Amino acid sequence: MANFSKPSGPRFSVEVYQNEYLPEGGREVNAIVTVTATGGGTVGQVAGGSPSYRPGQVPDAAVVIMVDCSGSMDYPATKMRGARDATAAAIDTLRDGVRFAVVAGTHVAKEVYPGGQGLAVASATTRGQAKEALRQLTSGGGTAIGTWLRLADHLLASADVAIRHGILLTDGRNEHETPEALRTALDACAGRFTCDARGVGTDWEVKEVTAIASALLGTADIVADPSGLAADFTGMMETAMGKEIADVGLRLWTPMGAEVKFVKQVAPKVEELTGRRTEAGPRAGDYPTGSWGDESRDYHVCVEVPAASIGQEMLAARVSLVIGEPDGTTRTLSQDLVRAVWTDDMAASTSINPQVAHYTGQAELARVIQQGLDARKSGDVDGATAKLGRAVQLASASGNADTAKLLAKVVDVVDAAAGTVRLKAKVEVADEMTLETRSTKTVRVKK
Predict the structure, then answer these.
(1) Are the C-beta atoms of residues 40 and 110 closer than 8 Å to each other?
(2) What is the C-alpha to C-alpha distance for residues 96 and 78, in angstroms, rounded to an integer?
(3) In the structure, what pLDDT confidence band is assigned to residue 2 with cuts at 50, 70 and 90?
(4) What value does the mean pLDDT take over residues 321-328?
(5) Can you tell me the distance from the alpha carbon of 105 to that of 383, in angstroms, rounded to the nearest whole number?
(6) pLDDT of 205-261, one tens digit each?
(7) How far apart are CA 242 and CA 35, in angstroms?
C-alpha cells in the first residue's frame, strides 16, 4: 500500500484483501479494496448547537435542500409541518460560510430562499431569514422531480466550491414527468453533485427514490413518520458538513490481456459501479466514489486474467485513488496491487478470502431481498418464500442483525440457519418499504 495524500487535507489509504492463488488455467481474480479517509470531517457542534469549524477554515461547500410541496403533502397535515421543521433543523446545522438554498418542488421547481437564482452564504442572519422563508412552503400541484434536480444543479454550479450536495424529500410518485425525463435529468446531474433522497410516509415509489440516490452517489431512506424528519435531516446535513474532498475516483489499471469484469461498492451499502467507468488512459479506467469525510468503504473488484501455468505470477491490477487538480492533471492519493499466482497447491487455490466471501454474500443478500419482494408483490408466494428465506439465511450467517430484524417483519422465521420461513399474511406497508429501501445496506466484515 502506498499513500500519496497531502498532509494538509484528508489522508487516504488503499488496502487490498484477496487470495492471490489460482489453480492452473484459473482466470478470475477477486479482491476487496478497502479505502479509508482520515483527517477529514472537521466540522463539529459547539454548545448550543451552533455550527463551528477550525479557526481560519474557509467552508468549501454548497447545499441545496429540495422539499416536496405537491398537493399530497397536505395529507396528513403533519407531513408539510414535518418538512418545514426538518428543513429548519437542517439549516441550523449549516456552518458559517457554506452556500445554500431551499427549493420548493411540485410539477415545477421554485427557489424559496434566497431567490434570484443564487445561493445565500450561511450566517446567523441568513439562517434566520431562510427559516422565516419556510413559511412560504405550502402544498399544491404535482410532482416532477427532474425539474427540482435541474434547478439544484443550476444553483450549485454557481458556487466555486469543492463539495456540492443536495438533500431531496418527496412523499409521492413522480407522476408529472416521464421516467425518461427523470433519467435524463439524473444523467445530466451525475458527477456534478451528490444527493441524499428521503421518502416520507408510504405513498412514494421506493425504486424512484433509491435510483436518485444511486445515480447521485448519495443515500436513500424512508421516514415513515413525519415526526422523524427533523432528526433525519439534521443527521444528513451533519454528514454533508463533514465532507472535505469531492470527485474521488477509484482507478483500475490492468495489464495487456486482463479485463475488469466488475467493480461494486459493497460497504456501507451495495452500489454497482461497473457501468460508470470513464477511460483514463491506456488500459486504465476510473470509477466514481463521490465525496469523502472521515470514513471507510469497501469495494469488490473482479478481474479476468489470461490463463497461465503453475509457478507463474502477474500483476492483475493496480488500484489507485485519484483526484483531479485545477490544472487538469490527476493526483494519486493512495494505491495498492491485486496479484495473481498460479499454484498446484489445492488448499491454497480453493481457499476463498474471508472478505471476498463475506461481501459476495452481502451482495447476494441485497439481490434476493429485491427479488423476494418483487415476487411477493406479483403474487408468487413460492418464489417470494424461497428468495426471502435465502435472505434470512444470509443475514443470519453474516451477522447482519439490522436486515434480519427488517426481514422478520415480512416473514415468520422458522429456522434462520436453514432459511426456512413463511410469508406473513399481513405486512405493514411501511415495514415492506423499509426493507426494500434499506436492502442494499451491508454489515462490514471483521478483518
Answers:
(1) no
(2) 30
(3) low
(4) 89
(5) 39
(6) 999 999 999 999 999 999 999 999 999 999 999 999 999 999 999 999 999 999 999
(7) 17
Instruction: Identify whether the C-beta of residue 426 lies closer than 8 Å to the C-beta of residue 391.
Output: no
Q: Report which DSSP code applies to 344.
A: S
For the record, the C-alpha cell of 342 comes out as 498460479
In sequence order, which ranges of 134-281 are alpha helices (DSSP H)? 145-157, 179-189, 206-215, 229-241
Non-local (6+) Cβ contacts of 341 within 8 A are 20, 21, 22, 312, 313
- H helical segments located in 190-289: 206-215, 229-241
- Give long-range contacts, CB 8 A cutoff, 24+ apart: 227-231: 227/78, 227/82, 228/82, 229/82, 229/83, 229/85, 229/86, 229/169, 229/198, 229/200, 230/82, 230/85, 230/86, 230/88, 230/89, 231/89
Q: Which of 263, 298, 258, 256 is nearest to 277 (CA)?
A: 263
**What average pLDDT does the chain have?**
93
Tell me which of 70-84, 173-187, 293-307, 360-374 is least confident: 70-84
Calpha distance 374→368 (Å, rounded) = 10
User: Nearest 5°: CA angle at 318, between 312 and 322?
Assistant: 175
Query: What are the cell numbers at 8?
Result: 494538509
Q: Which three cell numbers stand for residue 428?
A: 405493514
Angle 46-47-52 from CA coordinates, rounded to 5°: 20
